What does this fold into?
Amino acid sequence: MWRIETGQTSLRSLDVEAMCRLYGARPDITSALMGLAKETKARGWWQAFADAMPDYFDLYVGLEAAASRLFVYNGELVPGLFQTEDYTSTVVRTHNPDLGADEVARRVRLRMARQAILHRPIGPPVLQVALDESVLRRPAGGAEVMAGQLDRLAEVSELPNVSLRVIPFSTGLHHGTLTGSFSLLRFPVNVSGEESEPPTVYAELHTGALYLEKPSEIELYSIAFRNIWQVALDESSSRDLIRRAGEGLRNGKAV
It folds into this structure.
């Protein structure tokens, strides 16, 4: 126990399960801790792509993999966890016009690999995602690419751990217009009732990214997301709007 507590040896998931039974931990906490025990034995998969991502993004990918809940607002682009390969390729090429084809393909593979957390067998994160209608209407990569992307959005919106809402143009000015795009990440609760990592707000800029952890900052972004969520369409209406937008692209007209 001393070696485990001082970090001199790792903890097997079976040991974690036995200790959780002894301490009377809830089943969801036990599952989360067992998953963490398995992950501590392995180097993060994303390290193999370290040279294909900005320095500031390496930290985010690790936090994203550890998060239990993600609250995401985006007013410009489809979030990376929901992007198709063609859409991602368009975004990468637009942001980095001088990249060669091999490097573009490598960055696309990184983004696709991140999406595995949506279907993770143990403790997949719960996502609440709000998108501005402009995300649906901007035909990134052309009509065919965007129609395929909208099909993907409609598909992932039906996953049991995903709630996806769209803020229609008719809403007018809303909190997301003022905050800009951001992600709020929250983490599994440990046996003492505290989150295993501090809640974190991530906002990406053209030259880097912001990581915010102060309680006052987390509270302000939490309030902003609640307000964004309240003015968005419900999940069913949002899915209908996404599908109509895709049909409109295929038919060559806006719907």
The chain has two domains: 1-42, 45-251.
